[in-house]
């Protein structure tokens, strides 16, 4: 998990490489698709919209290609400053891409928001692949009707039905993407799977549990940052994380009666963090209030990048 760099061994010249942005409306399963493609959990998921806040590069290296996926926040109508920040991150991801992957659900027709997005794509000169996700949940002819509707736009080089949750069609997508890339030097070493720091990924895993266990405005008013991380002599990794909310009432909900909620968040997060780090973890979480941080540009920049 290091910074982007060229990796120049002899095999690099034989590989296809490229940057692939993954876009789509909120909650269509972009992060679930990427976790399936990479083969391990790097991105948080939930059944709530706007879970992803940042552009995150996930790296897949096969015997034929190195694909640098760029996961983007879900496209939606902006509300507060934080949601506008999320949309800016999604739009920035289009710069310098070799291929776009657009994820939809089997709606049977094209939603109005997608049509508005497509109207702004006249100047895109890279191939676009459409993934119709969640086909295992489709009813009747919804998958076929969705494929026909999107094909008529003339925007897409390929249209592929998948179920990311069930890993159905994932290998077809990887093979198809590889065909569209050009030969070049590896951008990451073959062992790397992300350009993000461990701090960022750990904070995201904690934030995911908040999304899953809390409701209404709580997940959207919450940020997580690591205060410190230390490996003890016995191999256990000690982590102290700070959970930021906007109001005292939100702090009370996150802590819960007798500390029950914060203990549950910590317990579930620790399991995933141990899997990520390959080590036993002692996790301490504290909750702090920073009033109205989701409407403060400076605090948004600071708190959504999770650096110590």
Q: Into which percent range does the helicity of residues fall?
A: 25-40%
Q: Let me know the number of strands.
A: 10
Flag low-confidence runs.
1-13, 48-53
Shape: globular
> What is the level-2 CATH architecture name of the largest domain?
3-Layer(aba) Sandwich
Any idea what the radius of gyration is? 20 Å
Biggest sheet features: 7 strands, mixed
**CATH fold topology of the largest domain:** Rossmann fold
CATH class of the largest domain: Alpha Beta
Please write the string of helix (H) and strand (E) elements: EHEEHEHEHEHEHEEHHEH
* Class based on secondary structure composition and strand pairing: alpha/beta
The tally of domains stands at 2
Number of helical runs? 9
DSSP strand (E) fraction? 15-25%
CATH superfamily of the largest domain: P-loop containing nucleotide triphosphate hydrolases
Separation of termini? 16 Å
Report mean pLDDT, rounded to a whole number.
Answer: 83
Q: Could you characterize the architecture of this molecule?
A:
The chain has nine helices and ten strands. It has 308 residues and is an alpha/beta fold. It has two domains: 174 residues, P-loop containing nucleotide triphosphate hydrolases (Rossmann fold, 3-Layer(aba) Sandwich), CATH 3.40.50.300; 106 residues, K homology (KH) domain (GMP Synthetase, Chain A, domain 3, 2-Layer Sandwich). The strands form two sheets. Strands 1, 2, 3, 4, 5, 6 and 7 form a seven-stranded mixed sheet that branches. Strands 8-9-10 form a three-stranded mixed sheet. A hairpin with a 3-residue loop joins β2 and β3. α6 packs antiparallel against α8. It is globular and about 55 Å long. The two termini are 16 Å apart.
